[in-house]
Amino acid sequence: MKILQIGSSLESWGGIERYIAYLSEGLEQRGHDVTVACAPSSPLALHVSAKTIPIRVRRKFDFQAFAQYLKCFRHNRFDAVHVHFSPDFLLPAMAARITRQPASIMTRHVVLPWTSTKVQLYCTLFDHFIPVSDAVERVLISSGVPKSRMTVAKAGCPPLQPKVDRSALRAQLGVSQDGVAFGFFGRLVVEKGIDTLIEASQALPANASYEVFGSGPLSDELQQRAKASGGRVHFHGFRDDVPECIQAMDAVVIPSVWEEAFPYAALEAMSVGRPVIASRAGGMPEIVSNGETGFLFDKGDSQELARIVARLSADPALLTAMGAKGQKEHRCQYTVECMAERIEGVYKSLKVPSPQKRHQPAL
User: Fold this and answer.
1) Residue environment code for 295-309, b if the CB has 16+ CB neighbours within 10 A, otherwise e
2) What CATH topology corresponds to 2-157+336-357?
3) Which residues, 6+ apart, have CB-to-CB distance to 64 below 8 Å?
4) What is the tally of helices (H) and strands (E) in the chain?
5) Over the stretch 64-73, which tens digit does the pLDDT of each residue have?
6) What's 12's DSSP letter?
7) Total-model pTM
8) 288 pLDDT higher than 50
């Protein structure tokens, strides 16, 4: 199939960008002809392996970008046009409809409802929707999107490949070689629930620590609060050696207080055999098998988080066993190949024309 992935409004390197890059790579490996529309010199353009079309969407009604999409679609016939981020939901989809591209698909990456007006508009513009988790699908159903127009297809990621020895990195980070380190990876914003982690730190066992990796607007405030709570939470700022840092931890904590759709932090931790301790938010209960590959706790419940951390700190064998189960689950369900196969199945279900039966491009 000839497939266009659209990420022309994406300017950073986050979960959606990685989703597009991984999906494009996986589809190429399955023999498909993949192109990515993205802003020139953007992180997505620099990371993606597929060929690219340089289009930047700066706002919802960017008519210069609309003209570029019309030109692109008049010279190319794609079997599937696949969009991912809200600023791209309107103009590229309209251009695809005007030029009669065979199939338009939207992946919904967040657990947020739509108004009835948006439901009507998007159901007109798109043939099918891909929620990244059951949690996303439930919200879209409650918004009025027909279940028959959706297929949940969960993401995947390549296994992390750390290049530095675990012990060496722990020494560099100042983390005890004999202690139990629980790592947080993400932006330091209210939604990520760092407050819960800081509150739970007051009951940390003597051999345990929380290690926070990331930056954000609340960095200074959170560090002050952590210091006032006993100094058992250590902040390492933004680092680009995330695979090494995750491997250096004994478990990964995701204490989000908002509805995480399907976070890569959990999949990446599983890929290197690290248990995940996460709040019951969004799609997290779909990733973490409670008591098997990690533990779940109620959003904002610092006491429950503290009890889980205490239990794992006292039982290294349980940490190892949970990590091994999570790593096996990643290999079976959450690789790039698994992700691409699931989404390829969605494309095929739409019965797009075979390459031999495609219409000639309208020039």
Assistant:
1) bbbebbbbebbbebb
2) Rossmann fold (3.40.50)
3) none
4) 15, 12
5) 999 999 999 9
6) S
7) 0.91
8) yes
